[in-house]
């Protein structure tokens, strides 16, 4: 990959801008050799020039703000939805508030990744931030559910880019050997958002207004844009003057992803799995996926090159990431509701009960990241993490209505420890295993399939749980005999507030049925994590690069 001198920094030092390409290359080569021999790494900017630690931290801070905004908006409206649909009179469209964001962000991930590799990432990053802020403004002013859903979709179009471009820009300025500790903080951001999102949404709704969940993005997003413009200086992109954009690949991939996400979101909830709508969505998904493969085989610049799947590390870590996404979102998706029903607490308190999981995740994600940067060894982390997550799922399967709360919180801590080890290091493995010219595309591909896994995880666990709960309630109603008519059997009406308002004897029956239905479902996810651990055993531990720009050879 070609680079050009950083004219601004050269002028600051009083150095001439021209005639220095050879000396810059020689200096960069010398630094690379020194780094390789000493194990030390140095972040670089344009022309191989070293970035100061302060400059790197400022750049990383701007990227972290962007990623936090993107990750928070996946979860922040969850606890606010009952209030929102009541105010905007749109209960029939409630599911779309979450689906619109997830669908839009998932679909555009590979597009941002490929375009970043083709035309450069900084301008795309600013565009993605601007789209996200605009979507937040739309949502903040929404006076109908349709308007709100449109705002969420626009947010997703920007949020998917923030998630991918942030990780790829880090790869542009920080060597892989030093990137481990930064990836640890990124993993912590995703963990923080899973807990902080519902908490903030609940607090905004209860104390001020749910619209703050949108308006808070505006000043933070504008600050991130300003920092990005002023601080982020990436190697000048050198490539084709008019790069060929894989429009057909992007369209077929978007249709396939949309079909899969909608099938996972609607199946078993809005529509029965054997309904014409779901069957039709599955057919559309399969046909679009086949068309995508055929298009990518002929495309000059495929949005997800099929050659990536010939890279053993990319394929194994992507499959493992998909499995971890299924297990993670399947495990924590119903945990807040379980805690609310079994412990008779509100949404805010149940959110605080997830803090042990966040604590465990922070410890292993950040600590493991620093350990990777220090030792250069990383293969053990995701394998260990997958096994620890499997252990946590086994423990979850033993939970009952009378399980002591401290024990449940301990199980959540173990889950967090495993997720911190397993999640973000997979992106580092992918980035270290491909040429730098494909970093954005590979990062996007890995994250794309993880998001697909997240959607599938929520759908799989939700479908299994609802089926088991319906069976348990029917059995309990039958055992009550003539009095069974007082027992609610409509699972859609079994909200925590409604259950806690029932008479004590009916309340206990519902709580027992809920815990009996949910806990065994976690056991179904254990083989998936064991398969993920087995796949990761075959990952080749390539030494982490000590320079930013890797040889294309």
The CATH class of the largest domain? Mainly Alpha
Shape: globular
Total discrete domains: 3
Task: Provide the low-confidence segments as ranges.
Answer: 1-41, 44-48
Count of DSSP E strands? 0
Question: What class, by secondary structure content?
Answer: mainly alpha
Account of the protein in words:
There is one protein chain. This protein has 553 residues and is an all-alpha fold. It has three domains: 1-6 and 39-244, Growth Hormone, Chain: A; 247-299; 311-481 and 489-543, Growth Hormone, Chain: A. The protein has 23 helices and no strands. The radius of gyration is 24 Å and the shape is globular.
Question: Brief overview, please?
Answer:
The chain has helices at 7-12, 21-38, 53-72, 81-88, 94-119, 122-140, 145-173, 176-207, 212-215, 217-231, 247-266, 276-298, 312-333, 335-343, 347-352, 355-375, 380-396, 405-422, 425-433, 439-480, 496-500, 504-524, 526-536.
């Amino acid at each position: 990959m070609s680079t050009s001198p950083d004219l601004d920094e050269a002028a600051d030092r009083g150095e001439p801008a021209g005639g220095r390409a050879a000396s810059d290359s020689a200096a960069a080569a010398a630094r690379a050799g020194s780094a390789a021999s000493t194990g030390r790494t140095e972040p670089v900017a344009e022309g191989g020039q070293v970035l100061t630690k302060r400059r790197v931290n400022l750049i990383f801070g701007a990227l972290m703000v962007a990623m936090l905004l993107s990750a928070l908006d996946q979860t922040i409206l969850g606890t606010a939805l009952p209030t929102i649909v009541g105010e905007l009179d749109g209960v029939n469209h409630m599911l779309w508030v979450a689906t619109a964001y997830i669908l839009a962000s998932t679909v555009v991930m590979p597009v941002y990744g490929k375009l970043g590799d083709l035309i450069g990432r900084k301008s795309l990053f600013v565009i993605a931030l601007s789209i996200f802020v605009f979507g937040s403004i739309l949502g903040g002013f929404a006076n109908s559910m349709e308007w709100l859903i449109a705002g969420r979709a626009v947010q997703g179009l920007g949020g998917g880019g923030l998630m991918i471009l942030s990780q790829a820009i880090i790869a542009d300025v920080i060597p892989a050997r030093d990137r481990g500790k930064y990836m640890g903080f990124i993993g912590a951001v995703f963990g923080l958002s899973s807990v902080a999102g519902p908490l903030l949404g609940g607090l905004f709704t209860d104390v001020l207004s749910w619209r703050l969940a949108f308006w808070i993005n505006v000043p933070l997003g504008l600050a991130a844009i300003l920092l990005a413009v002023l601080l982020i200086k990436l190697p000048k992109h050198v490539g084709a003057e008019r790069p060929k954009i894989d429009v057909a690949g992007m369209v077929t991939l978007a249709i396939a992803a949309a079909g899969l996400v909608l099938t996972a979101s609607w199946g078993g909830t809005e529509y029965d799995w054997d309904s014409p709508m779901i069957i039709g969505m599955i057919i559309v998904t399969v046909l679009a996926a086949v068309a995508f493969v055929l298009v990518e085989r002929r495309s000059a610049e495929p949005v997800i090159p099929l050659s990536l799947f010939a890279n053993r590390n990319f394929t194994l870590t992507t499959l493992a990431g998909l499995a971890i996404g299924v297990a993670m979102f399947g495990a924590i998706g119903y945990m807040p509701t379980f805690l609310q029903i079994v412990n008779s607490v509100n949404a805010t308190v149940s959110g605080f009960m997830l803090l042990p999981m966040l604590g465990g995740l922070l410890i292993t994600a950040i600590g493991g990241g620093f350990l990777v940067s220090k030792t250069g060894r990383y293969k053990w982390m995701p394998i260990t993490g997958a096994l620890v997550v499997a252990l946590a799922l086994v423990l979850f399967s033993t939970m009952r209505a009378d399980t002591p709360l401290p024990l449940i919180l301990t199980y959540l801590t173990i889950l967090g420890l495993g997720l911190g080890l397993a999640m973000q290091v997979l992106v580092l493995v992918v980035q270290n295993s491909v040429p730098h010219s494909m970093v954005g595309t590979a990062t996007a591909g890995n994250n794309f399939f993880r998001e697909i896994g997240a959607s599938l995880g929520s759908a799989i666990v939700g479908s299994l749980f609802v089926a088991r709960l319906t069976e348990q309630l029917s059995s309990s109603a039958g055992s009550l005999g003539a009095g069974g008519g007082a027992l609610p059997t409509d699972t859609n009406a079994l909200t925590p507030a409604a259950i806690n308002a029932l008479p004590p004897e009916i309340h206990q029956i519902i709580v027992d049925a809920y815990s009996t239905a949910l806990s065994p479902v976690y056991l179904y996810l254990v083989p998936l994590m064991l398969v993920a651990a087995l796949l990761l055993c075959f990952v080749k531990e390539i030494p982490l690069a000590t320079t930013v720009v890797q040889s294309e050879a």
